[in-house]
TrEMBL record:
Name by which UniProt lists this protein: D-xylose 1-dehydrogenase
Gene Ontology MF terms in the entry: D-xylose 1-dehydrogenase (NAD+) activity
Enzyme class: oxidoreductase
InterPro entries: KR_dom, NAD(P)-bd_dom_sf, Sc_DH/Rdtase_CS, SDR_fam
The species this protein was found in: Phenylobacterium zucineum (strain HLK1)
Annotated ranges, domain Ketoreductase: 7-189
Length: 255
């Protein structure tokens, strides 16, 4: 049987990139996966490709009412929630002096408020089922700074310590919930098209191969599957003694 056989998993931002990779890997190992996103077309495509093992729900992670309705839907369909992967995120890069307060808040709303709201609203359902595993997707930019990514680093560093605080709160309650962060490096996904502002001719997206050559000691970029393997382990009972931990999957960038 699979490594997460029979578990119910919710993956935010599951329509694309790393989230999609996680949804696929968890489904392959026997989980029922609820994929949520704001890109309905892509989300429905993911669910079709996974067959009966998945459902798609439209869900903006910055919206508290949407979280309440998504968790309610999970409860009524499955009666429990074992795994939450807080993956939805955006990257807005520019010099700190050029960053508008509106963009700062937009990025914080998705990357940090979204993770907070997910934890807040998923925990009661997880606890009612006797425990679970929360995996928050941070970044290598949550471990050290990067130029032109001050806002992004602030959110991802916030996710890292939020994760540890929640892990300790759950451990103190002996509620059976573990909470860990995952820190990807350079992973080939569409997020890189927006990371420097996404304005063609003004701010071109970074050349991933050039970035890889410059920053990644192993000399190769990663793929969503590389992150999904770590998320799968944290989601499974194989990591039952791991909480408040940070799993770095970056080809050596932060070593
Ligand atoms: P992606 O853009 O391919 O996927 C992100 C998904 O999140 C998209 O499907 C998008 O529609 C969704 N999303 C955006 N805003 C949302 C909202 N408000 N509500 C719900 N869904 C929303 O990017 P990705 O690379 O797969 O990123 C996934 C996570 O991994 C992000 O948190 C990102 O910061 C993190 N990360 C990525 C890399 C990388 O190199 N790709 C590196 C480090 C960390």
């Amino acid at each position: 049987s699979g490594r997460v056989e029979g578990k119910i998993a919710l993956v935010t931002g599951g329509a694309s990139g790393i989230g999609r990779g996680c949804a696929e890997r968890l489904a392959q190992e026997g989980a029922s996966v609820v994929v949520t996103d704001i890109q309905d077309h892509l989300g429905e495509e993911v669910v079709r490709s996974l067959g009966g093992a998945a459902v798609y729900l439209r869900h903006d992670v910055t919206d508290e009412d949407a979280w309440i309705s998504v968790i309610g839907e999970v409860k009524s369909r499955f009666g429990r929630l074992d795994v939450l992967v807080n993956n939805a995120g955006i990257g807005l890069g520019c010099p700190v002096t050029d960053m508008t307060l509106a963009d700062w808040r937009k990025q914080t709303a998705v990357n940090l408020d979204g993770v907070f709201l997910g934890v807040k609203h998923a925990l009661p359902l997880m606890r009612a089922g006797g425990g679970g595993s929360i995996v928050n997707i941070s970044s290598v930019a949550g471990l050290s700074g990067a130029p032109n990514l001050a806002g992004y680093c602030a959110t991802k560093g916030g996710v890292r310590l939020f994760t540890k605080a929640v892990a300790l709160e759950c451990a103190a309650l002996k509620d059976g919930v573990r909470c860990n962060s995952v820190h990807p490096g350079v992973i080939e996904t569409p997020i890189w098209t927006t990371v420097v502002g996404g304005q063609p001719g003004v701010n071109e997206p970074p050349d991933l191969d050039a970035m890889t050559a410059m920053f990644v000691p192993m000399g190769v970029k990663g793929f969503p599957k590389d992150i999904a393997e770590g998320v799968l382990w944290l989601a499974s009972d194989d990591s039952r003694y791991v909480t408040g931990s940070e799993l770095v999957i970056d080809g050596g960038i932060t070593a």
